[in-house]
From TrEMBL:
<dbReference type="GO" id="GO:0005829">
    <property type="term" value="C:cytosol"/>
</dbReference>
<dbReference type="Pfam" id="PF00248">
    <property type="entry name" value="Aldo_ket_red"/>
</dbReference>
<dbReference type="InterPro" id="IPR020471">
    <property type="entry name" value="AKR"/>
</dbReference>
<dbReference type="InterPro" id="IPR036812">
    <property type="entry name" value="NAD(P)_OxRdtase_dom_sf"/>
</dbReference>
<dbReference type="InterPro" id="IPR005399">
    <property type="entry name" value="K_chnl_volt-dep_bsu_KCNAB-rel"/>
</dbReference>
<keyword id="KW-0560">Oxidoreductase</keyword>
<comment type="similarity">
    <text>Belongs to the shaker potassium channel beta subunit family.</text>
</comment>
<protein>
    <submittedName>
        <fullName>Aldo/keto reductase</fullName>
    </submittedName>
</protein>
<keyword id="KW-0521">NADP</keyword>
<dbReference type="InterPro" id="IPR023210">
    <property type="entry name" value="NADP_OxRdtase_dom"/>
</dbReference>
<feature type="domain" description="NADP-dependent oxidoreductase">
    <location>
        <begin position="17"/>
        <end position="314"/>
    </location>
</feature>
<dbReference type="GO" id="GO:0016491">
    <property type="term" value="F:oxidoreductase activity"/>
</dbReference>
Length: 336
């Protein structure tokens, strides 16, 4: 495993990060989930990403149990707050002081730890003053419950505003967690340059486009049984934007590129996001331990300029690069 600094902080994280969205407590049975965590640890992965909303808090519980007994100081554990949890009452959502303070305590209990290394705003909260949110995050850091603060799916302007307030409050906003892959490049024109200026890293989710970039989904054919595209618990909805024949046909053009390099298409996809110097780590999910092992090997892959150009040519106009999609996909109001 290789490691990179997270933003302008002194903390390093593993280049591949194990994430349990759509798997732990939901898509994958607990024994299989724990086997995937063990495979991640054996592969040298030290960074683990989760959120309170995943499986309505169950994913945090499974991860906490899977990591029990490990040396805490050797791990970097990330979690997030924003989406509705628990009974999903009127204050069980958002980035208010009340919800942040209650949520961090719940997350720490479920994760069986006294602190998280990174606490992230899972989305922008249009209904809470940013000053209230950042003051609450500052108090969480000062209480020793989190070392650093991050955000997820914020626009460049929102990141800039949050970073300025964090600096005024004496805390470090060091990361942005956006969707990023060969197919989804909406952060490149605005978010990445802003973050490079501010000393903020990307820790990206869905580098394999929810499995589409593995090449297992073929144009004109039904999705394989048991795949994410058939998962009605949430996976099928998230992957739907890529499930059309134009995209799937273009993805098949990547196979010769991967074959020439002697790597899998998944490794090619993860190596591609890691080629961006503003990316500190790529979050990989898995339903089987061998997937973890396969994806983690991407840290040893270097893609030269000719390969990157060949990837662009293979995908052509199915790549999505519209920077406005970050804001358009954000909730305009709280979900409840």
């Amino acid at each position: 495993m290789k490691f990179r600094y997270l933003g302008n902080s002194g903390m390093k994280i593993s280049e591949t990060i194990y994430g349990n969205w759509l798997t732990h407590g939901s898509q994958v049975e607990n024994d299989a989930a724990k086997a995937c965590v063990r495979a991640a640890l054996d592969a040298g992965i030290s960074s683990f990403d989760t959120a309170d909303v995943y499986a309505n808090t169950a994913a945090e519980t499974v991860l906490g149990e899977a990591l029990a007994g490990e040396r805490r100081e050797s791990l970097e554990i990330f979690t997030k707050v924003y989406w509705p949890t628990g009974p999903k009452g009127h204050n069980d959502v958002g980035l208010s002081r009340k919800h942040i303070m209650e949520s961090i305590n719940g997350s720490l209990t479920r994760l069986k730890t006294d602190y998280v290394d990174l606490y992230q705003a899972h989305r922008w909260d249009a209904e809470t003053p940013l000053e209230e949110t950042m003051q609450a995050f500052a108090d969480v850091v000062r209480a020793g419950k989190a070392h650093y603060i991050g955000v997820s799916e914020w626009t460049a302007g929102q990141i800039r505003a949050g970073h300025a307030l964090a600096k005024d409050l004496g805390i470090q906003l060091v990361s942005s967690q956006p969707q990023y892959s060969m197919l989804w490049r909406v952060i490149e024109s605005e978010v990445v340059p802003t973050c490079e200026e501010l000393g903020v890293s990307q820790i990206v989710w869905s580098p394999v486009a929810q499995g589409v970039l593995t090449g297992k989904y073929l144009p004109g054919q039904p999705a394989p049984e048991g795949s994410r595209a058939t998962d009605e618990k949430g996976g099928a909805n998230m992957i739907s934007r890529f499930m059309n024949d134009d995209v799937l046909t273009r993805v098949q053009n990547l196979k010769p590129i991967a074959d020439d390099l002697g790597i899998t298409m998944a490794q090619l996809a993860v190596a591609w996001v890691l080629a961006n110097p503003n990316v500190a780590g790529a979050i990989i999910g898995a339903s089987r331990p061998e997937q973890v092992v396969d994806n983690a090997k991407a840290v040893d892959v270097t893609l030269d300029a000719d390969v990157l150009a060949a990837i662009d040519a293979a995908l052509g106009d199915v790549v999505q690069s519209d920077a406005d999609l970050t804001a358009k996909n954000a909730p305009a109001t709280r979900p409840v």
